[in-house]
Design goal:
Amidase signature (AS) enzymes; alpha/beta; 13 helices; single chain; eleven-stranded mixed beta sheet
């Protein structure tokens, strides 16, 4: 058993009980979970004692869009609450179960995973423990907070435009968006077939790596830190950036260069193609394809902001949609060729978490949502893989993002470990 992980099979039962007691008595845990899985979790914790996997005994939260046997998969909506319970775990969830994971509960999220800020008008919004009164980030809001509060070791979620990395950035943890093809999407309620990816959040890159390997059905083999050349794209990611985010990122770049990392700045020619690929074409059309009956028959049960984004599918034709897919394919090829074995380095989000009170206004909400999604969405449209890595600068918890070409998950994680170790000095843990 690796000493780098905070769990063990022998402590699974006691750690689970401590977590359940904390959740029941802590107002800060309100709205994090849609449902606790107490009885199944206790059975899993007991069984973990005989498990041989390095994951055995880890406390895991599961985003409410994954099928968990015997539970209704609601995607934190009202419209799906009366659907039949899932007959079996989603494949990725079944693999975590077989490896000895302990499922604490189903976590809250933006309805249908259709927001980067994490607000939910039906079930409440999880409190951000790092930036009190501010948005927790979405759509995997409850998952990120479950890790940030120390209630779970791993949060399993989805990422369509940053939904693992934005909440990780806003709550000071690590988020990993794998290459889409690496983890099966079966058994997860979709938002966008083109852009969805399933992956983990945790405290460290190493824990994210282990969880992803299990979800992907791969051997659990930790990588060694291995830096890659880091590219800062001068023509993407830095418009409308908060001064504190900009200052922190510049400090990160200086620190990495001082530690011997090769960091270069250049324009990326492929970004010209990226500008011709509106992600909302895919999210609006593809979400409607899955949920059209509910959209048509029960409009009053939707989060109005989610329904408004789904309604935008009516603004485009089938020809528009197909052209967007064609342009995306051209961009993916150009991006992969241009990036090669390098990795992009940029702020995970250009903004700090906005105050929830400021988001009551639809215009402000929409502007902040688009800004939060802007940088991380690049990896989804590019069919790439990406890591959000937390650090501190002055008195702020911030996040830097790495992006690698699709299929280079192992290299990204190895580079992420090297960058994570360098950032430890900024976090005061070096």
């Amino acid at each position: 058993m690796s000493t780098s992980f905070p769990w063990s099979p022998d402590t699974a039962e006691s750690r689970l009980e401590t977590t359940l007691q904390t959740i029941s008595g802590d107002p800060g845990s309100k709205a994090v979970f849609l449902k606790l899985l107490e009885a199944p979790a206790r059975a899993q914790a007991k069984a973990a004692a005989s498990g041989g996997s390095p994951l055995a005994g880890a406390l895991i939260s599961v985003k409410a869009l994954f099928d968990v046997a015997g539970e209704v998969t609601t995607s934190a909506t009202r419209v799906l609450c009366n659907e039949p319970p899932a007959r079996a775990h989603a494949p990725a969830i079944a693999r975590l179960d077989a490896a000895g994971g302990v499922f604490v509960g189903l976590t809250n999220m933006s309805e249908f995973a259709y927001s980067g800020l994490g607000l939910n008008p039906h079930y409440g919004t999880p409190q951000n423990p790092v930036y009190p009164g501010c948005a927790p980030g979405g759509s995997t809001s409850g998952g990120a907070v479950s890790v940030a509060l120390g209630l779970c070791d791993i949060a399993i979620g989805s990422d369509t435009g940053g939904s693992l990395r934005i909440p990780a950035a806003f709550t000071g943890i690590t988020g990993f968006k794998p290459s889409q093809a690496s983890v099966p999407l079966t058994g997860g309620k979709p938002l966008s077939d083109s852009l969805d990816s399933f992956g983990p959040m945790a405290r460290t890159v190493g824990i994210c790596e282990l969880a992803w390997q299990v979800m992907a059905g791969r051997p659990a083999r930790p990588s060694s830190p291995a830096p890659a050349r880091l590219v800062i794209a001068r023509n993407f990611g830095f418009d409308e950036i908060d001064p504190q985010v900009s200052d922190g990122f510049e400090a990160v770049v200086r620190m990495l260069q001082d530690k011997g990392f090769e960091v270069i700045s250049k324009d990326l020619a492929s970004m010209r193609l990226y500008g011709d690929v509106p992600p909302w074409h895919m999210t609006s059309v593809e979400s409607r394809a899955h949920y059209e009956e509910y959209f048509r028959d029960t409009p009053e049960q939707f989060d109005p902001r989610v329904r408004a984004r789904m309604a935008r599918a009516d603004e485009i034709t089938a020809i528009d949609y197909r052209r967007t897919l064609n342009r995306r394919a051209a961009f993916i090829a150009a991006f992969r060729e241009e990036l090669g074995n390098d990795m992009l380095l940029l702020p995970t989000t250009p903004i700090l978490p906005p105050k929830i009170a400021d988001l009551e206004d639809d215009e402000t909400f929409n502007r902040m949502n688009l800004l939060a999604l802007r940088n991380p969405s690049l990896a989804n449209v590019a069919d790439a893989c990406s890591l959000a890595l937390p650090y501190r600068h002055t008195d702020k918890v911030l996040s830097a993002m790495l992006v690698a070409a699709g299929g280079r998950d192992d290299a990204l994680l190895a580079c992420g470990k090297a960058v994570e170790a360098a950032l430890a000095g900024m976090n005061g843990t070096d």
